[in-house]
């Protein structure tokens, strides 16, 4: 039977949420093609969460182990996945996460084929696999047909909502022989413990120039806390360039692309560079004193007025409902 | 240090996007084209590395139409030594096809101490040509570098990953793709712009391999449902919360 490979992602021995999204996307393709999903886990030993992948539609879960896989090992990972794909996969599905953006092109090149990157939708028509990719800062969508054997694609995080679709998902482990590789991860400098990344948080609250000064981001952090660990604080390019917030928090074309369930733009006018990074959010709320700000054109709900009054009121309301 | 910098001519992100008559590509009438912003970091990094080494050559390589010569001249004006245009009618949708053409040129013109790319192009969001070229040249590669040190023949680079910074090492020669933060690109000075006109620029027509990504159509994104102003000031907050809870169902 035709195989669809779903390349999962782990850090410190635990599968990351995006893995369930990759399996969900792979399952959709597999159902349309009458194929099976083989989820791949790359790790130095058993990875926690591998047993969850069956729930999202993995027919089997294969952990490829090597000593070098304690951390992300770009060259070893690419080699191991490419070898597995050469054994007869029709499609290889990766995440367009920080790791996936690094890994997927290497896998595609080893397979001598192209990569449909940062895909937001997939479909099968007459046996042909097609994908939708945002281009030009999200101002256009390309519909592409993947003719590679195998076809390789990476899925934009937070777009393929994980769906429970239980399959057998038998677990197995295969030790692979890969060299240590020339590119090695020496250290992972984690941000503040428990801090969510804007690219992964289900709720993102971004602030712009309207916050007036760096210390005022406190009111956004208070709101994020009110959401009980589900929210991250983002920033516009203007305030990152001004040194108020780190680049890691920047949402937009020269920052991160986010697709949270709820995006709150606070004191952000909505320049095209910013919209490029957040327009695929499911629900957008804008809070701005200028009722003509472009952000209101993409926002589902807008509140016009002084953010220093509105945000604390919202924080209180969220807390009282929690 | 002999450094290759691979750049791309792209539509400015401020541009109004209109699909062309073929239904598959950008109508470029009236569109302003620029050097891909992430490639500016790559050009700047190459210039700084050459300056630091005290000797070497920075060669700019672009794949594109004849108009990409102008983009190469921009990089030459920043200070690169010479340029190569791999001339094609249209940049292919399949990044691997582009990677093959660039890798062939780099193989012929190498060896290189460093090959630099921007981490992605702001037109097609492909983020793949750099690491693919690395595979084809069998060179180590680090992508999306936001901080870089090179000591002897060892590269140490920071990459932003979700919620953390990944510190990666590899030996030279290597392929690196640059992210914001790695440096502050210089503006071409008038002197540089004048000098750039006289710098060598080779135009080489290339024939591309067939690709595995075929564009069927380019369409505008679905319009977001007309939003609404809930109200003004803190008084609007209860209604906003109600809408998020009951209508949008996100709380």
Write down how many β-strands of chain A occur, each being a DSSP E stretch of 2 or more residues. 18
Strand arrangement in the largest pleated sheet of chain A: 7-11-6-1-4-5-12
Helix content of chain B: 25-40%
Name the shape of chain B in a single word: globular
Q: Strand-residue fraction of chain B?
A: 25-35%
Strand content bin of chain A: 25-35%
Measured between the Cα atoms of the first and last residue of chain A, the distance is 48 Å
Radius of gyration of chain B: 21 Å
Unreliable stretches of chain B (pLDDT < 50, length at least 5) are: none
* Continuous helix count of chain B: 6
Biggest pleated sheet of chain A: 7 strands, parallel
Q: How far is the N terminus from the C terminus of chain B? A: 56 Å
Provide the structure class of chain A.
alpha/beta
The main β sheet of chain B shows up as: 9 strands, mixed
Name the average pLDDT of chain B. Answer: 96
- Element order, helices and strands of chain B? EEEHEHEHEHEEEEHEEEH
Structural class of chain B: alpha/beta
Oligomeric state of shown chains: heterodimer
Explained architecture:
- The complex is a heterodimer of chains A (322) and B (251).
- Chain A is of the alpha/beta class.
- Chain A has helices at residues 18-33, 74-86, 98-110, 218-226, 237-241, 272-278, 295-298, 307-321; strands at 3-7, 10-11, 14-15, 36-43, 60-65, 89-95, 115-119, 121-125, 128-135, 140-146, 151-155, 170-175, 184-190, 203-207, 231-235, 262-266, 283-288, 301-304.
- In chain A, the strands form four sheets. In chain A, strands 7-11-6-1-4-5-12 form a seven-stranded parallel beta sheet, with helices on both faces.
- The N and C termini of chain A lie far apart (48 Å).
- The mean pLDDT of chain A is 95.
- Chain B has 251 residues and is α/β, with parallel strands linked by helices.
- In chain B, the strands form two sheets. Chain B has a nine-stranded mixed beta sheet, sandwiched between helices. Chain B has a two-stranded antiparallel sheet with strand order 2-3.
- In chain B, strand 7 (141-151) and strand 8 (154-161) form a beta hairpin.
- In chain B, 49% of the residues are buried.
- At the A-B interface, helix 2, helix 3, strand 7, strand 9 and strand 10 of A face helix 3, helix 4, strand 7, strand 8 and strand 9 of B.
